[in-house]
Amino acid sequence: MSSSSQVTESWISSFCGLLGHEYFAEVSEDFIEDDFNLTGLQSQVPMYKEALEMILDVEPEDDEDEEDEEEEDEDDDEILGDERPTGYRRASERRHLRMASDLSVIESSAELLYGLIHQRYITSRPGIQQMAEKYELQHFGTCPRVHCNSCRVLPVGLNDTPGHETVKLFCPSCLDVYTPPNSRFQTVDGAFFGTTFPSLFFMTFTDIDIAGSRNSAGAADALLAIQQANRDAKNNATPSHITSINGVAPHNLAPGLGPGSIYEPRIYGFRVSERARSGPRMKWLRMRPADVTELDETRRYWEDHAGDGDQPDEEDLNMIDVAEGKAAPTDRRKKLQARRRRANGSGGGGGSPMDTNGIGAAG
Amino acid sequence: MDDFNSETDSDYTSYWRDWFISSRGNEYFCEIDEEYLTDRFNLTGLNTEVQYYQHALDLVTDVFDFDCDDDMREAIEKSARHLYGLVHARYIVTTRGLAKMLEKFKKSDFGKCPRVLCQSQPLLPMGQSDVPNTSPVKLYCARCEDLYNPKSSRHAVIDGAYFGTSFHNILFQVYPAMLPPKSQRRYEPRVFGFKVHAAASLGRWQSDERERMKERLRQARVETGFEEEDEDDEEEELEDEDMEVGDGFEGAMVQQ
Predict the structure, then answer these.
(1) ipTM above 0.90, yes or no
(2) In the CATH scheme, what is the homologous superfamily, with its name and number, of domain B1-91?
(3) A35-82 residue pLDDT tens
(4) B169, B204, B252 ranked by CB distance to A278: nearest
(5) Following DSSP, what letter does each residue of A125-187 receive, concatenated?
(6) Per the record, where are the segments of Acidic residues compositional bias (chain A) (predicted)?
(7) Is A341 or B40 the better-scoring residue by pLDDT?
(8) Second-level CATH architecture of A140-204
């Protein structure tokens, strides 16, 4: 925007260059200058205007010039534009007086504001693209879990309001969240990344092979390669013509979980029994059906309640995409019916998993 | 400690084990008793595994007295570390060894579980194989029962066989009181407050598997070890799901 900001480093790039801020993307000034993107932030950030000016490197001295520009902009879309400049000027005068004492307050407000804008930016098209580049370069690190084979992770917040939790890392391979290995990230607020970002990321870039990085890392090690081949074979009960289950390609649905990726405790080679007090209790957390069509809950439900009337159309039933048109719907149904018997015993939520009246009704 | 290293060149080398366990990168090891090392029975079979076995053993037990050039010395030093590691794997499953490792475990010397829901549960070192040079050391979390890579690269090069595949499981058999309570909570990926369908349906499937396991255990009259156990709690859990509030995880959602 102003030529001066290009000479010296902008506030945004210096903020992103700070130690511990490696996860941040540089929000484009265009995004920040669009008021729509800042809706509601004014009430969340103290000294909002000053903070915003700091982020955009709008110098108080430059105010005259800036205002002129802004005035023009304002005139175009706002009738109230006339009143603005005086307000601005007064604000800038006041600022000169309190500048020194309040600078640190404004600085921290600017960081908060930038974080909150960042949370929105990385779910926008240019933002998520920028994060994709950082993901490719492994800027967020890899999953510490052994069976995830150094799968690349993404930053995530556990809360969208600031001040609750620090930033965590989401692993798409085990669908779990981890604390960043370096303690310098323990000062970064998770809300600056938000709860939505990583899941939206993998919904946006469905072509990414989540487990992909393991090939380059694992191929070097012959043993790992063999283990991998073993695991793939075990995991491969999914009919090969299925290209999507519940909106995700089968090979991208938690590839780090399932048979072969669950730790089996052993003592001198003998497995520790489930019935032992110290026996395994948490295997469910890392389980995944060998045949992912088991997760097609809609179809399973309606096959259980075949006679119950209101059965939706065949189209609506289908949470599975197949490669070659209607290659095998009938034989899939047979399989599902066989499987159904096993699935029946699961108390859990009762009723339909898709029944929004019961479980899904959030306040 | 660096001064100490040069001192080992003299004839009277002492406290090699002290130096070894206190040197950087060896934080996972505990000190093996002199007594254990000098009992030949405990070293059965290691002479074929370790080069310069006798010299290495002398070095470890601080009776090294052999004039040799630097290259040889280097090789013996390396063998001594290997020997120490292999004896270590045997030692830590003995009563005294377990007690020593338990102390280190309590101090979180092996690090804490990176999984957010494990709430900094201390880890234990383990190997995925008992054969040396197969895979580096991993860390076991007793709360989520999973394996993690050590944070630091200086630990990632330690051989897993120096800890073995059994040690961490034996520790919890011997000290069942150290078993952490297991949690049924999980992370639920969400987009704008809504659960992601693929992840959520996998989660429901996993919960079904868990309930089936609990049923099996109940029929076998075995304690399940989960934090929230009774039927009341299960109802609560459902309610939680209804209301989507509370603890940051099940309820990690957009707030106004």
Answers:
(1) no
(2) protein kinase ck2 holoenzyme, chain C, domain 1 (1.10.1820.10)
(3) 999 999 999 999 999 999 999 998 765 444 444 444 444 444 444 444
(4) B169
(5) HHHHHHHHHHHHTTTT-B--BGGGTT-B-EEE-S-SSTTS-B-EEEETTTTEEE--SSGGGGG
(6) 60-80
(7) B40
(8) Single Sheet (2.20)
